[in-house]
């Protein structure tokens, strides 16, 4: 069975900075600890105002206020003490069981203009809330991006496409295939283009190794021919 319901009483007319800070602190603690609650605006909700004045002691009706299971657990200062002493479960009776009283139903929750007073789940319609809660939790590692320096199978596309400002842009062969498909190419043309871009760097490197030696050989042959011709003229 659930624990006693927690009702938080706030006001949208919070002209004093200290009051706004207390409201923000209360809401932040409840949300961080994922404690369910219902919030009411005493500036616009007359039913909530009457309930608060009826249940809270006359000398302790300062806002923000809390009712747990329809009972007054203490003022805001005691809530702060419970947070600091790690006794919030005792102050809010989180470990107790609660049976709803049909004779004293909860007052309806109305929209409230205090930031953080309503959680995203509370704003979700009931017919969608069941689907959201039924979904399996997503692993925090799912979809985690891999650092660039640890990715495998990538190459610098600027080595093949020079002059386009692509220095440092690394892609995989799969990404190239998807890009070629978006360009409308398919069949042998697409395969040749992908192979040329992804595998061209190695062939280019190999070509650089052979071209200088060939050039040197041609230069040596040219030098020999020029030497022989000059010797013939001297004779």
Protein architecture, described:
With 235 residues, the chain is mainly alpha-helical. The protein folds into two domains: 6-134, Glutaredoxin (3-Layer(aba) Sandwich); 148-234, no CATH class. Helices cover 47% and strands 8% of the residues. The protein has helices at 17-32, 46-55, 76-84, 88-91, 120-123, 126-134, 173-182, 187-234, and strands spanning 6-10, 38-41, 65-68, 154-156, 170-172. It has a three-stranded mixed β-sheet with strand order 2-1-3, covered by helices on one side. A two-stranded antiparallel ribbon has the order 4-5. β1, α1 (17-32) and β2 (38-41) form a beta-alpha-beta unit. The chain is elongated and about 85 Å long. Belongs to the SH3BGR family. Residues 193-205 have a biased composition (Low complexity). Residues 222-235 have a biased composition (Polar residues).
